[in-house]
Write a structure and sequence with these properties.
This protein is an alpha/beta fold. About 35% of the residues lie in helices and about 20% in strands. The strands form two sheets. A seven-stranded mixed β-sheet has the order 5-4-1-6-8-7-9, sandwiched between helices. A two-stranded antiparallel sheet has the order 2-3. A hairpin with a 2-residue loop joins strand 2 and strand 3. The model is unreliable at about 1-10 (pLDDT under 50).
Length: about 210
Amino acid sequence: MMTGGLKRCQIAAGVLAGGRGKRFGGRPKGLLKVAPGICIMEKQLTELARSGMEEMIILANNPLPYKAFGSKIVPDLRAGTGPLGGIEAAVSYYASRFKATLFLPCDLPGITARQIRILKEGFVRTRAGVAVAVTEGGLREPLCAVVDNRLLPAISKAIDGGKRKVGEVWQGLDMAFVHFSDPEPFFNLNTPLDLVSWLAGQRRHDKSRHGKR
């Protein structure tokens, strides 16, 4: 759908942070600490900036938890629509100024600028309407995607039709996959146990790295 190289393909970003964090006692996932003094949201915004992202917004209906990060907070256009509501809001917000929107869920502590750049480049290379990250074994990450902003009417129509699963909506559009051999950066924190597991893995990684010096 798009032509031209990455420099001509203006892409902005939206971090999906509208979940209520029920499994974490109501604490927003984006505020979970994944390093001393650093939460997931801060880390993701830093990595997005390192990737060369032109603009970033936080997609959340409650702005209070994320005010300190300095990014504009955009609420859903309509309530009760899940992540698709955030996607619709971001695409609508950016449609007049950017060609496409890159999305990340706020529960990925390991995502880095490298994966973000690969996802952007995959979107441009495939010229698809939606480029979705796929990890080893064919596991799709529908919330890690780049979306052509011209698809706003199709996204809104899907929501009007009662659809709430992002992957299902992408399947009905011009979708391509961007493959990643390493699934670790896409490890998401669904439960407190996931956070404990991820932090333990980071400690082991740090010890191994320091031991090789």
